[in-house]
Design brief:
With 181 residues, this protein is mainly alpha-helical. It contains 6 helices and no strands. The longest helix has 30 residues.
């Protein structure tokens, strides 16, 4: 087959699969890593919205501190979403398309309560972030299995950020003694 015929054949194949991105990973690797990262993406979106929900509905004597903490954490979570989705696309996969798609994949439980005590919001978000850390480690394992070092490297940064969010939520939720310590 000559070069022109190969180019034509490649163009025809791409028209059939317009979102196919070239990658040196196997089809199984693309499927497995994309699947793991799409589940992470759904969890991050769900945790982002839960964090913003608690941020918007915060009340009490520590309002300002908690409100700002949750705003910062929400920004950090939202900042993860585009790199996750773009990484899936770079691997040749497709990613989340709608709120419904997120709902089908998310493992972070929603909290639609009309009011949650501030200490309970911090505890719930702390647990959700701890769980996200564990799921990021699982996704890292999938990446290692398929020798996808680029995705694994991104995950390592997100694990560190998630552990930091967990730490801050833990410290903010601690009860001090009468001296404030």
């Amino acid at each position: 087959m000559n070069k022109s015929a190969k180019v034509t054949q490649e163009l025809e194949r791409r028209q059939e699969l317009p979102l196919t991105t070239p990658t040196d990973l196997t089809a199984n690797a693309t499927r497995d890593v994309s699947g793991a990262m799409n589940a992470i993406l759904a969890d991050v979106f769900a945790l982002y919205l839960k964090t913003k929900n608690f941020h918007w509905h915060m009340s009490g004597p520590h309002f300002r501190d908690y409100h700002l903490l949750l705003d910062e954490q929400g920004d950090q979570l939202f900042a993860m979403t585009d790199p996750i989705a773009e990484r899936v696309r770079k691997l040749g996969g497709t990613t989340i398309r709608s709120i419904g798609h997120i709902a089908r994949l998310q493992r972070v439980a929603d909290n639609d309560a009309p009011y949650v005590e501030p200490e309970d919001t911090l505890a719930e978000l702390r647990e959700d972030n701890q769980t996200l850390t564990a799921r990021l480690r699982e996704a890292h394992g999938v990446c290692e299995e398929h020798e996808d070092v680029a995705t694994a490297s991104l995950i390592e940064v997100w694990i560190d950020e998630t552990e930091r969010r967990t730490w801050f939520l833990f410290e903010a939720g601690r009860r001090g003694d009468s001296t404030g310590h």
